[in-house]
């Protein structure tokens, strides 16, 4: 490539601080399964953050699947188009990851409430299964001596599907996280833009004509 063909590299501010914090806090939280508050914070920031943090930056849109197929084909041909925000495949991945994390959070809270009487559902569960004349707060996790046997069996039947969904969602989420890491590395090599460092600095380094998926409807 001669000098006339070289393109000037420009710095673009893309990921704002709350988005970067969400990414890395969520990485640590998923490992420890303590991501509920962080997830809710990310949902709230999707209403008030910058254009690359909002719902419109990653939720599916009309024609999104077609864009994702075209982008995947461009990657296979070694000519991927650079995006300021998430590329079409990235948008789908983020949506799926958030759905999986929401499922984990909801099913985890249900099982925590029904297994160990953890808030916000624990006190209601204790009140429901406590035997007559037994103070609900006196119930201990996994202790069946002070409970109404019929209601306790009904509770077991109710909570069982939540446990299975939680387990398989966890496996799926871990698989998606590995796929996400691999995809980021491949995209970094093929597309450039310093995607990995952008989650620390909030800035991408790109050249040439760029696409902005936040403009899609």
For the termini, the CA-CA separation is 37 Å
Within the largest sheet, what's the order of strands?
Answer: 1-2
Tell me the structural class. mainly alpha
Query: Helix count, per DSSP?
Result: 7
Average pLDDT over all residues: 83
Q: Radius of gyration from the CA trace?
A: 23 Å
Strand and helix order: EHHHHHHHE
SSE blueprint:
Blueprint lengths: L9 E4 L3 H16 L3 H13 L15 H13 L11 H28 L6 H8 L19 H43 L3 H7 L1 E4 L11
Antiparallel strand pairs: 1-2
Helix pairs in contact: 1-2, 1-7, 4-5, 4-6
Structural key phrases:
mainly alpha; 59% helix
Polypeptide structure, described:
The chain is built from seven helices and two strands; from the N terminus they run βαααααααβ. It has helices at 17-32, 36-48, 64-76, 88-115, 122-129, 149-191, 195-201, and strands spanning 10-13, 203-206. Helix 1 packs antiparallel against helix 2. It is elongated. The chain has a two-stranded antiparallel ribbon. The protein has a domain at 8-116 and 174-215.
